[in-house]
Structure formats: C-alpha cells, structure tokens
Amino acid sequence: MKYTKEHEWLRVEGDLVVVGITEHAATQLGDVVFVELPEPETVVAEGDEVVVIESVKAASDILAPVDGEIVAVNQKLVDQPGLVNEDPTGAAWFFKMKLDDLSVLDDLMDEDEYNDLIG
Amino acid sequence: MSDLLRLGLHDLHVHLGGKMVPFAGYEMPVQYPAGVMKEHLHTRSAAGFFDVSHMGQVILRPKTDMARLCAGFEALMPVDVAGLAQGRQRYGLFTNDEGGILDDLMFANRGDHLFVVVNAACKAADIAHMQAHLSAVADVIPVTDRALFALQGPGAEAALGALLPGVAAMRFMDVAILPWQGAEVWVSRSGYTGEDGFELSVADGQALAFAQTLLAQDGVMPIGLGARDSLRLEAGLCLYGHDIDTTTTPVEAGLTWAIQKVRRTGGAREGGFPGAARILRELAEGPSRLRVGLRPEGRAPMREGTALFAGEDAAGTVTSGGFGPSVEAPVAMGYVPTTLSTPGTRLEGEVRGKRLPVTVAALPFVTTTYKR
Fold first, then answer.
1. Is residue A40 part of a domain?
2. Is residue B2's pLDDT more than 70?
3. CB B276 within 8 A of CB B78
4. Is residue A109 one of the residues assigned to a domain?
5. CB pair distance less than 8 Å for A52 and B36
6. ipTM score of the complex?
7. E strand or H helix at A71, and its extent?
C-alpha cells in the first residue's frame, strides 16, 4: 500500500490502482452519510476533486492522488456510505484508476512514512 | 486554544475521550469515541449526558416584589412572565425594537426569584441587557459557581431517579430544588433534544462527583455537541445565531406558540415589548416568510447557507441542515416565502452547483416525548 498526505491509500491490482481513504481519515471524518462518485472513464489530474464525502459533521473532497483515468467506481458506497467507517481499507474503496506509468507511485509514502505523518 | 475558557469538568471530558473543539469561547467536547451517530441514537433510545456549563445561568432577585420584577421582564419579551406559576419554567425570547431576536432563553419562577438560562454566545450581552433594563426592579446575579448538565432520553428519569428520587414526580417544564449529598441540585424537566429529560444545575464543588455518579448509571453515555446539534435539528428546535437572530422575528421563526394570548392584541397585557408593532402586525396579517422543515429527496445533506429555489426564483436559504440519524436521511430547516411554506411544497436546493429536489416538511422530524 502507498499513501498520500491527503490520507488516501493506493493499492496496485493488476494494471490498475485502487484508491480509498485511510482508517485515520475515516475516524477524523466521523460517520460518513453521503458519497458522490465521479463518472467512470473520467480523465483526471493529480489534485482534481473527484469524490465528495459528507460525514454527520461536514463535507470534504477526495482528490485524485495522481494523473490517470478513473475506470471504475464503487457504487456500493452510494447506498451504504457507512462502509467508509466500517472497512475503509477494504470494502470501501472509492475508485480504480489506470495510470500511464505505475512508477509515479514510488514517490508516495509507504506505511512507515505515513504512520510517522499521522503520529 | 489558549484564549478559550475551559469547562469545570474539562479533565473528565478528556478522560472520556472527548474531542475538544472551540465553541462560543469555550473548549467543548464535540464528540466522544462512540461518534455523533451512535451518541445521537443512544440519546433517543437510552440516556445521554451533556455538559452545557458554557451556557449562562442568571438569578433575577426582585428589589421589592416579584410582580414588579415580572412586569420588568415582560417589557423585554413578548412572553407571559407574570402568569408563570411557581415551580414552572417557560421558553422566552429577548426581542429588539425591530422585532428581531436578541436571544432565546429559559426562565423559571422559583417563588422569590426568577432563574434564567441563556445561550453561551449571548450571555455577556444578555446580562448587560438585563442589567440595563431591570436594575430598578431586580438584582441581576450571574451564577458563575455552578455547572449545568442535561440528561436526555427515555432512560433519563430512571437514571436520575437513582440520585434524585424526587424527579419522577416532575412534569415537563417543572422546576425543583432537590438535595444531593448535602447540597442543592436545581432541576428542570426540560431539554433541547425532543426527548423527555432534565437540566441540572450543580454546585462546582459537587459537579465532578455528580457527573461521575450519573455516568455510572445503566444506559447513561456522554454526548457531545455534534449529537446535541443533530438531536435539536430533528426536534425542530432553533439554534440561536443560525435559525434565529436579530434579522428574524418570532413570528417568521414559527415561535408564535411562545407568545401567549395575554401579550397579543386584545390580551390583558398586550404589546409593551421591543418590536411589538411588527410582531403584533405579523401575528395578525402573517409574516412574509416562515421557518419550515426541509427534507432533501436525495442523500446529499443540505447544510446551512444552501440557497433554495422555486423554479428560477430564489426561495430562501437553509439555516440548519445535516443528516438526521433517527430519520435516517438528511434534514434541514430554513426560511421560505410564506406562499411556499405549506408542507409538501417542492423546491430545489443548490448543493455544489447542482439544484437538487427538496420538499417542505412539517416540524419536528421526530415525535417528541416530553412528559406533559
């Protein structure tokens, strides 16, 4: 798993990258009650706002962690937003991306570096 | 958070895992480890303990007699003060000359004085307001050495009864002074969640022991400000500074139930409060806009500030909104033109640039369980 400072995790699955938010982020957000996903086949640039997530407390955005194309989204989250709190690093993945070059992931944090970040 | 005030029980909240955030000049627990959703649902099914010691407690002690004090207090509010029986509490509203709301509050007749509870963010202004207008008839005495707690939910009576057996005999909006371990607890059967429950003023020296004893009762869980907000929103209750403020009148806010007949046109003590001309006119003719409940049709919450539309026309603004854990859907309140205020009216709310359907709904969103 790779991590961003925006508290996203990225996992390579074949030639795709699966993206979700970390347990730390899910805890900070509180109970998630709404998820709005992008359309599949959307080309995005790093930093684009691609997902809207609302907890009981507030709305926040999830940003595209790298350049690429979103090829699949997890529709289950629309009906069961609470999955984000129950299983943030498993069942509650948000989208899958196709990247031109998987080596951009080398620049992201590994688990130890991420754990240092959240202290 | 160095310039913020701390609650007397700050260390207890931290010990309980409370996440402390700034609110109205205080460091307040917004949630505990259970989280807003569970805390909300727990309050509706068992009993929630809230520390609301940031709120202002004030005693109004008459300089001569209660009648003059009540008459003076009535001159600040469109509310029947003189008719409030001893041992009873009532909801009140300070108004300004334009009919806007300076604050909402609770006041109780405790025989030889009135006990007033006001919002934290307004308490300095409220105390100054009362001192400016009541000094001839009352001593305005801020109570600064007592904590204020609320215990809310269907389990509140049993849990509190273990400490204060007298509470079972109280009805909604009764007040009483009950003994606990040699000192007084000032109790009212009221709250701000839509549930049966109690508000409890406890001397600082006893506050920790009292809170810990209450938290040790079956079914009692600490509840933060996050759930306090979603509970009051589902109950259709106004949050000062959001749903009501100096730009909204009590009539626009749908708080006409708080204006007793005796203060209305034709009543024995009609008018005579700030903004009476506008408020009495709106009571007779209807206001141009009204606070209503709003049910977004989708899952996206419509939060405070969301603009409302009827077709292409602007149709008001959301003043409180979020997810209602008991309703299991987003809920909101806001002001709409009176012509669009009938429950069932379909409007749109603009969320992140998109117009989404929302329906005007009756308040409250949940069935209240006050013990009348």
1. yes
2. no
3. yes
4. no
5. no
6. 0.85
7. strand A68-73
